[in-house]
Amino acid sequence: MLSVALRTLRTRWTAFAASFVALALGVGLITMMGLVLASSAHAPQHAPERFRAAPVVVHGADTLRVRTPSGVRTAPLSPPRPVPAGLVARLGRIGAVTADRSFAVSPAGGPSGTNGSARAADRTGLTGHPWASAGFAGYRLTAGHPPAAPDQVVVAGAWAHPGQRVALRAAGGTVRDWTVVGTVAALPFERAVFFTGAEAARLSPASPRDVVVDAPAAAVTAAVAADPAATGVRVLTGDDRRLADPDRDGDHEALVTVDALLGTAGGVTCFVSVYVVASTFAFSVAQRRREWGLLRTAGATPRQVRRIVHAEALVVGSSASATGCVLGRYGAPRLAGALVQRHVAPVWFGIGGATWPYWTAFGTGLLVALAGVWAAGRRAGRVPPAEALRDAAVDSNAMAPGRLLAGGALLLGSGYLAVSALVADPGEVLHRKTYTVQPMVLVTAAALLAPLLVRPLARLLAWLPAQLLGATGMLAGENTATAVRRTTAVAAPVLVSVALAGSLLGTTATINAAKAAELRGRTGADFVITAGGAGFTPATVARVAAVPGTDTAAFAATTVHTLEDQVALTGSPAEAASPAALATVTRLPVVAGRLGDLDDHGIVVNQEWARHTVGQYVRVWLGDGTPRTLRIVAVLRQGTGDNGAYVTPANARGAAVDRIDVALRPGADRTTAAASLRNAVAPSGGLVLTDRQWVAAQHPTTSRQTRIGFWLVLGIALLYTAIALAGTMVMATSERTRDLAVLRLAGATVRQVLRLLGAEAVLAVTVGAVMGAMVTGVDLAVVRVALALLSVPGPVTVPWAALGAVTGTCAVVAVTCAVVPGALMLRRRGPAPVRA
Amino acid sequence: MQLRSVSRTYGSGDTVVTALDGVTLGFPTGSFTAVMGPSGSGKSTLLQCAAGLDRPTSGSVLLGGTDLTGLSGTRLTLLRRQRIGFVFQSFNLLPSLTAEQNVALPLRLSGRRPAKGAVRDALARVGLADRARHRPSELSGGQQQRVALARALITEPEVLFGDEPTGALDSAAGRRVLSVLRGMADEDGRTVVMVTHDPVAASFADRVLFLADGRLSGELRAPTAESVAAGMARLEAVSC
Ligand SMILES: Nc1ncnc2c1ncn2[C@@H]1O[C@H](COP(=O)(O)OP(=O)(O)O)[C@@H](O)[C@H]1O
Ligand SMILES: [Mg+2]
């Protein structure tokens, strides 16, 4: 059988080309993403950077550890705690101690400074340190001398030279002039500025986060262990010193993003490629009915026909999968490079040596190829011998019972998912995982059930053109409606692309619009002042509060951790603000309790919290890790979710004010107030925005990574659709020699035949696009209903442009791939009748 | 309709096949001609060259003063659409269209709306008025053949060509098709040319042309089934 299969492969290579390309590409993409995911799971440990020349580093507590019945759960502290002053003094008794502080410094007028956790790639600002710690990172003076006076600095890099005066804003304070007295060679992980120790301590008064001790590690560990105030403080030596490096948090976040991005993209790729490859294989088998009939006439048993089909799939599947693995191997480093370049992955990110992605992708590819022809092979085996002699019947059984069953089950399943989510927890519908996965279930159901809809839709769409005088409208309508299998093979991939584009982009846009509307509703302020990375100093907050005719509310972003179900330590975003300010300046949607009741023992939660009854107590860990039991004083409406809790500033120690809401008192003049506010923040830097500007600035809340992810996903889906369309159209057109010859004999000119082929392609694509739009409509309706249940206003946003672009691309590909082979065929054959 | 020293060769070099070798003949208006000959003698080629479906390698084909060999592809198609009809042994109909739609196809292709009842009349004439809404897969071979004939009738062609139009049919169905062809020549004054293997079918024609090795080898006027069979036997004896 294999030899027969090989011979067929040689003569019918066009039919297999589409399957081959689709499969090789799919396996390539899966390999590529697998390799990148494998590398992010086993990210190489980089060597210590900032403290590479320090013997022993004592690192302030930066991790919250909570013991639960099922083990210790951890979460990062925000902000991390400094090394306690008592411990620093104690360490000083066993060896020389050098404290390191890190704080944001920004060139005046330039971008605002960044804090230690900003990602390497985004680091446009400078980092301040005391000069004493410069040597631990390996900095050496290349010119000048160390800072000796409070107004002297040493800078890393060549952007300033000794003797130059530079205007800098350090640690969110006011802009001052400093004299550069020396320079050091820059290091890749930061852009450093060094101050005298005293000046660094004055600028960043909190105790240092890292202390270098010149003493044996054992002695230091003993000293730390003996200090009761030093819980969570770590003694770092050797490679562990990298834990004190500035990029650590950023890298971790970046890798989580890479995982999420490729997880989604990989999922969609798998879904689309499995679907497309399987249906291309199936179609290539179904198209050859006459050939199977001939084989049966020649005496082949159904089993033999099936074996030929399987052997073909095996040959094409394994060669395409192998090609895909090679493609993936070349593609993976490029994908990693692109992720680094777009600042999605950390700079050091690269591909490791994992081999499982190859095996997984190869196996998946082969399996998909075989699965694709499994049902088609059974059908091919059942083709009666007489089929070879008969006129091709109208496709009556394109809807196999298995397909109907699977499609119906998935449709019911997705209906159940949507309804149960809406009933149980509408907020669930707005989560990214939900709104990326649910459309896929519905899309699969729709694609499986497509044959049912193809005929009525094609007739409906072609009704008007068919009324026209010419034959094209009528013919295209009839051909499209009767060749259900062929039309489905074209319409289904279009359906998948259109539905994915519409659902993914539409739901995010709708949710964003809802979030913007919600934010607008919650913002009672007339102005919102935002700070750069380092936040506002208390002096600045006081100056703003003193502007006449205004009420202000200062917010400091922090985190509150709770233990859910005794197993999951979840961090919720929270804002620290004074209760009085909250009540006057914001319009938070309180459903129970009173904001004014908030005090240092209370918390305002929202309905998303497991406990949300006023008067109940919740056990929380504050941002700095302090465990507290707080009383719920008010409950906010859940809304679109992630709207956070509110605590008093006493429960957010160490968190700097990063936003000030300003409401005008009645009678106050807007313009005057705006000017005064600008004056008040001018020395420390900060943006005074009107409420509208602020909401607008928050509006595109979809992060860049999510958008890159969506475009990646859509690009893949569209690429696949294009391959599927090209393959199907070329296969289908070349199988239509007879139809076209009959048409020519009936008097159709070449131009008329080609116009017909084009019209049929457009019609089939339109059928798919309409079905895709229907799926999109259902998905958007589910999101809209969820928002309504959460009482969030906002319009349904349909991404018309994306839908149009996807449909247009599909139409162009389909028309080209129908008309070009058609034209070649007609030229080759002329109008002579087919010789049977 | 006139053919002047029409030749048609296939292939080139060593493998060149001469399917027609300088054939000159005429089909008078209103006549019914049958073309016979052994398999491979060039009957189909002759028909296709005459009908403008294929282009002769040399020679000319004249239809009422128009030289078909001089026309461009599109002009030729338009001329065929208006003045020539065909029926073949099989593969005549578009499987996706109903009988009715298949019959109306040539008119719609030329941008005309079929006159009211014209399609029904054509189907009625071939005895298929009750099958208008059936698709080819729901019709028997003979019925399909008659639908094809109805389609050839509707454009009212000057010349109708049939390549073994009864080849796949039983004798009863074949006779129905043949009597329709006979009627077209007698009642409508159309020129009918038909290739056949069947002496009985050939006996419906006014005259029979015998073809051998791409050349005209004989002619029989007012044929009967017996005289045709005798002619065929002579031809086969010579060529063996
Ligand atoms: N497309 C073609 N290419 C090569 N040879 C052909 C082609 N069509 C017909 N022939 C050859 O031309 C000769 C005449 O064919 P045809 O007219 O079909 O014969 P008939 O219809 O009398 O059986 C045959 O020898 C056939 O092999
Ligand atoms: Mg023949």
TrEMBL record, chain A:
Residues 266-385, 712-826 form the ABC3 transporter permease C-terminal domain. Residues 105-125 are annotated as: Disordered. It comes from the Bacteria. The keyword Oxidoreductase does not apply. Keywords: Cell membrane, Membrane, Transmembrane, Transmembrane helix. Its main location: membrane. It is found in: Cell membrane. InterPro entries: ABC3_permease_C (IPR003838), Macrolide_Exporter_MacB (IPR050250). One of its GO terms (cellular component) is plasma membrane. Belongs to the ABC-4 integral membrane protein family. This is Putative ABC transport system permease protein. It comes from Actinacidiphila yanglinensis.
Automatic annotation (TrEMBL), chain B:
One of its GO terms (cellular component) is membrane protein complex. Gene3D superfamilies: P-loop containing nucleotide triphosphate hydrolases. GO terms for molecular function: ATP binding; ATP hydrolysis activity; transmembrane transporter activity. CDD domains: ABC_MJ0796_LolCDE_FtsE. Keywords: ATP-binding, Nucleotide-binding, Transport. PROSITE patterns: ABC_TRANSPORTER_1, ABC_TRANSPORTER_2. InterPro entries: AAA+_ATPase, ABC_transporter-like_ATP-bd, ABC_transporter-like_CS, ABC_transpr_LolD-like, MacB-like_ATP-bd, P-loop_NTPase. Residues 1-238 form the ABC transporter domain. It comes from the Bacteria. This is Putative ABC transport system ATP-binding protein.
